[in-house]
Design brief:
The protein is mainly alpha-helical. The protein has 5 helices and 2 strands. Strands 1-2 form a two-stranded antiparallel ribbon. A hairpin with a 2-residue loop joins strand 1 and strand 2. Helix 3 runs antiparallel to helix 5. The protein starts with a helix and ends with a helix.
């Protein structure tokens, strides 16, 4: 979730700074071309997109019951735990000297990953989250 907001922030800053490469000031003149009109439309599209994103997020959350929100959050936490477990296994395989796991630790991670997958499947099977 945080990655989405970071991406949105980066795109907003990049969009706001792009026209400034050819202009000395907002709504100023660059040579014999007026760029203020382009900046107006660019900022209008940017702010409209931002407002639409906020409205979309509010409406998508408003349609869910508290139980569905809780289940979605639980599935997200389980998916993060599964990703962390699988990353540990992959790192141990790719870098055995730095991140090596003993046989018992590897088996424990595999059992954990399997149980997490089962819990995710159980939650997704019992409810329709999407």
């Amino acid at each position: 979730m945080a990655r989405r907001y970071l991406l949105l922030l980066i795109l907003s800053v990049a969009g706001a700074m792009a026209p400034l490469a050819s202009a000395f000031a907002h709504f100023g003149l660059y040579g014999d071309k007026e760029i203020g009109h382009g900046l107006f439309w660019m900022y209008g599209i940017l702010f409209t997109g931002l407002a639409a994103f906020i409205i979309y997020r509010k409406r998508s959350r408003a349609g869910l019951t508290p139980e569905q929100r809780e289940l979605r959050q639980r599935v997200a936490e389980l998916e993060r735990a599964l990703t962390a477990c699988m990353t540990q296994l992959q790192n141990a395989e790719d870098y055995p000297n730095e991140c090596g796991l003993t046989y018992a630790e590897r088996q424990e991670r595999l059992v954990s990953a399997s149980s997490i997958r089962d819990k995710i499947a159980e939650i997704n099977g019992d409810t329709i989250l999407h």
